[in-house]
Amino acid sequence: MLDEEVEATKCRLGELRVEHRDLDDAIARLSSDPLVDQLQLRRLKKRKLLLKDLIARLASRLIPDLDA
Fold first, then answer.
1. Dist CA 16 CA 19 (whole Å)
2. How far apart are CA 50 and CA 9, in angstroms?
3. SS3 34
4. pTM confidence score
């Protein structure tokens, strides 16, 4: 991976982590509301899970391959 690609990936990871945290806060606020729209809550949880998977994939790309 080129240095530019590594930096771009790190930047993207930071953005995704912020979005993941924001979704976590939004889900917590909505969950405390007894009149919450369950469909909206499910969509937010699904988006959060997709972000978690994407973050894991991008983070694993930053780990260098070690040839034994």
1. 5
2. 17
3. coil
4. 0.84
